[in-house]
UniProtKB/TrEMBL annotation, chain A:
Highest taxon of source: Bacteria
Annotated Activator of Hsp90 ATPase homologue 1/2-like C-terminal domain residues: 31-161
Family: Belongs to the AHA1 family.
InterPro entries: ASHA1/2-like_C, START-like_dom_sf
Protein name: ATPase
Pfam family, one: AHSA1
Organism, scientific name: Sphingomonas psychrotolerans
UniProtKB/TrEMBL annotation, chain B:
UniProt name for this protein: Transcriptional regulator
Cross-referenced SUPFAM superfamilies: Winged helix' DNA-binding domain
Domain HTH arsR-type: 1-95
A single GO molecular function term of this UniProt record: DNA-binding transcription factor activity
Pfam family, one: HTH_20
Length: 170, 119
């Protein structure tokens, strides 16, 4: 994290890393000061404009956020209210312009999410980190939601499942 | 790079289209085996089995490793193939999200230039 000296080439693109069995890390640099990027993560009307991009296939219907330690948030996805599903949790830590930590309480396998905003000159390095309770929980993250998983991949899974291939590997 | 992920999937399906190769996967799901073991089990020549294992390997479904003079094979799924697809899936989502976030951030910057910082 931000070591000086052997700085790897600065990537402007989105980097996704599986840091460990239970951790997902996504990083990206934004061309704005940290307070501005932070604002886009913490004002519901702004958050709603980018959290569910069209390619996700499921629109965000509503978004409530009480951004302070102990405060709750709730997101509802769906084509309309009749088939909506909700994601919700609590903010554990809120440091304006620098750090957000929240829980994901909609299921047994919810991650702990930490987002940090590091100002570097006129830019901000954003790190999104999720810690899941188990390897399986992270394996399954995104699966069966928002069409994130290509259909063929699910077919392949089913096929391999029927071949008795061990799920989850060694 | 959707193409990249789907090319990998195509390779997987091609690899799985053959009964012998499916049998090999099933076998390796139970235990590792050498190419020689597999050739015997499926009543094939060593060369024939090498080809099949090669196809499975390129699809990321099997990994092989030379141990002494024997080439050991084991299931490579959930290794390369699954991991690559998994990362790609997440990357596509975040890429799309962050491109949209760029637009929001850009607007906020303009607004701030115009009106001065909020706080």
């Amino acid at each position: 994290m931000g070591q000086i000296g052997s700085e790897p080439t600065i990537q402007n693109g989105t980097m996704v890393k599986r840091e460990s069995d239970r951790e997902l890390v996504v990083t990206r640099t934004f061309d704005a000061p940290a307070r501005i990027v932070f604002e886009a993560w913490t004002r519901p009307e702004l958050f709603m404009r980018w959290w569910a991009p069209k390619s996700m296939g499921v629109p965000l219907l509503s978004c409530e956020m009480d951004v302070r330690a102990g405060g709750k948030y709730r997101l509802e996805f769906g084509q309309d209210a009749s088939n909506a599903f909700a994601f919700f949790g609590r903010y554990i830590e809120v440091t304006p312009g620098a750090r957000l930590v929240w829980t994901n309480d909609e299921g047994e396998d919810g991650a702990l999410t930490t987002v940090t905003f590091e100002e570097k000159g006129s830019k901000t390095l954003l790190t999104f980190h999720e810690l899941y309770p188990s390897k399986e929980a992270l394996d399954e993250a995104l699966v069966g939601m928002e069409g994130g998983m290509p259909e063929q991949f699910e077919q392949l899974d089913a096929l391999l499942g029927s071949l008795g291939a061990s799920v989850g590997g060694q | 790079m959707v193409q990249c992920a789907s090319a990998r999937l195509d390779a997987s399906f091609a690899a799985l289209s053959d009964a012998t190769r499916r049998g090999v996967l099933e076998q390796l799901g139970r235990a590792e085996a050498s190419i020689t073991d597999l050739a015997e089990k499926f009543h094939m020549t060593l060369t024939g089995m090498k080809k099949h294992v090669g196809v499975l390997e390129r699809a990321g479904l099997v990994t092989t490793e030379k141990v002494g003079r024997v080439r050991a094979c084991k299931l490579g799924l959930r290794g390369l193939e699954a991991e690559a697809a998994w990362i790609e899936t997440h990357r596509q989502l975040w890429d799309a999200r962050f491109d949209a976030l760029d637009k929001v951030v850009e607007e906020l910057k303009l607004r701030e230039k115009r009106d001065g910082p909020d706080r």
